[in-house]
Write a structure and sequence with these properties.
By secondary structure, this protein is α/β, with parallel strands linked by helices. The chain has a domain of about 250 residues: 3-Layer(aba) Sandwich (Rossmann fold). The chain is built from 12 helices and 12 strands. The strands form 3 sheets. It has a 7-stranded parallel beta sheet with strand order 3-2-1-4-5-6-10, with helices on both faces. It has a 3-stranded mixed beta sheet with strand order 7-9-11. α1 links the parallel β1 and β2. α2 runs parallel beside α4 and α4 runs parallel beside α6.
């Protein structure tokens, strides 16, 4: 990746910023971040690789930021023509299931229309390239395991699992996956798709389960658990995911899909209790255990029971291995939030303070 020029859409988001930090810091790639800077776009997440959150300018010659909407065809065409990328990692998306229940229209606009807009911009640019550059170019679309629907108590999602989305969010991501495949099959655009399990780690916007629980613990607030907390997710440390994305970009076969999973299944209740246990050790409460704050709330509509990914194709064909298991990754995550309130406190105070979303 060291000689590549990469566009990363959604690069100020959670997974996108983890990828950008690794591309710039560890690989020496030249990166243009394209981000609309919605509520979940946090420029501070790129501070360590040279972005000034106040001016949105970068002191690092390898990194630049374009504040733009991926639905803006003219802006996307211009970004490709001026930056001239070798590859695009497309992560820009509305991603919170609860918010998709409250307002599905924005999910259709960004995730479906935005992806189609990017595909057209990439296709127009790709057609102008010389043969070698054409063959080397990649449009990599980062998606989710939620497109597959739900599993019973056994079995795993594979790349051949039929799509069966159950929320507006997962339906919008399924639509974008299908379009990426269509642009490959119809126009020959060299595309790659990855579908990942639930990510966690540093710089995670606090509407999601793990950071929400950490911050509610620190505030002494109730810890909301949907239903009985029996829903199962397969957890993937975000830096392991970023490494997988770069590996797929370098070695993946155009037109193929690769599932990225951590082999770390936990019920939501187990996740919450694990966070509580670590905080009991690292920052004990005066009033008792953090687990005493657990509060069971009405389940959200259409809540899938279980997700679990089989990453065998990625591991066997490309040689990927996660470096963290859930026990090591969750401890690193909790410690990061304890050490970095400079990042999450402004979000907590100005953007999102932990209120319930997605009641339907």
């Amino acid at each position: 990746m060291s000689s590549k020029r990469c566009i990363v859409t959604g690069g100020c988001g959670f997974i996108g910023s983890a990828l950008v930090r690794q591309l710039v810091r560890d690989r020496g790639a030249t990166v243009l971040v394209v981000d609309k800077l919605t509520y979940a776009g946090v420029p501070e997440s790129l501070k360590e690789v040279g972005l000034d959150p106040a001016t949105l300018k970068s002191s690092n010659p390898l990194l630049s930021l374009l504040v733009a909407d991926i639905c803006d065809q003219e802006a996307m065409d211009r970004a490709f023509a001026e930056f001239r990328p070798d590859t695009i990692f497309h992560l820009a998306a509305e991603s919170h299931v609860d918010r998709s229940i409250d307002g599905p229209g924005e999910f259709v606009r960004t995730n479906v229309v935005g992806t189609a807009t990017l595909l057209q911009a990439a296709l127009g640019y790709w057609k102008t390239l010389e043969d070698d550059a054409k063959a080397a170019f990649r449009f990599q679309h980062i998606s989710t395991d939620e497109v597959y629907g739900t599993l019973g108590e056994t079995g795993f999602f594979t790349e051949n699992t039929p799509y069966s989305p159950h929320s507006p969010y997962s339906a919008s991501k399924a639509s974008s996956d299908h379009m990426v495949r269509a642009w490959h099959d119809t126009y020959g655009l060299p595309t790659l798709i990855t579908n990942c399990s639930n990510n966690y780690g540093p710089y995670h916007f606090p509407e999601k389960l793990i950071p929400l629980i950490i911050l509610n613990c620190l505030d002494g607030k109730p810890l909301p658990v949907y239903g009985k907390g029996a829903n199962v997710r397969d957890w993937l440390y975000v830096d392991d995911h970023a490494k997988a994305l770069m590996l797929v970009n370098e070695k993946g076969v155009p037109g193929e899909t690769y599932n990225v999973g951590g082999h770390n299944e936990r019920t939501n209740l187990e996740v919450v209790k694990t966070v509580c246990s670590i905080l009991d050790e690292l920052r004990p409460r005066k009033e008792g255990r953090y687990e005493d704050l657990i509060t069971y709330v009405k389940d959200r509509p259409g809540h899938d029971l279980r997700y679990a990914i089989d990453p065998a194709k990625l591991m066997n064909e490309l040689g990927w291995r996660p470096e963290e298991n859930f026990n090591t990754g969750i401890r690193k995550t909790v410690q990061w939030y304890l050490d970095n309130d400079w990042w999450w406190k402004p979000i907590h105070e100005k953007k999102y303070s932990g209120e319930r979303l997605g009641k339907g």
